[in-house]
Amino acid sequence: QVQLVESGGGLVQAGGSLRLSCAISARTSIMSGMGWFRQSPGKEREFVARAWWSGGATDYADFAKGRFTISKDIPNNILFLQMNSLKPEDTAVYYCNIITSGGDEYWGQGTQVTVSP
Predict the structure, then answer these.
(1) 96-113: pLDDT as tens digits
(2) pLDDT at 51 over 90
(3) Which residues have CB under 8 Å from 42's CB, separation 6+?
């Protein structure tokens, strides 16, 4: 059984920072890719950042480059998203996502991030 539980969202002023966490309950042997997505009201869910369980490669959406950093705590199976210089347009529900080596995809329940002007 795979479970993803996000935390760390909240209300912050523009220019502030938040760090999101995603606690992953899964056998590490099946994990392949992991990432963060977000969805604002009335918009499609969009890609934010991704990493791979093995290795240090990362990938970011253009809006996240230079402001957001994805990282992982392998011993504790936690995925992080450090978000700096937040803007009101970053307001969204942020979702954690993993893809297993078998191609199965799992999502967390989401955590709300609200950035005030």
Answers:
(1) 999 988 889 999 999 999
(2) yes
(3) none
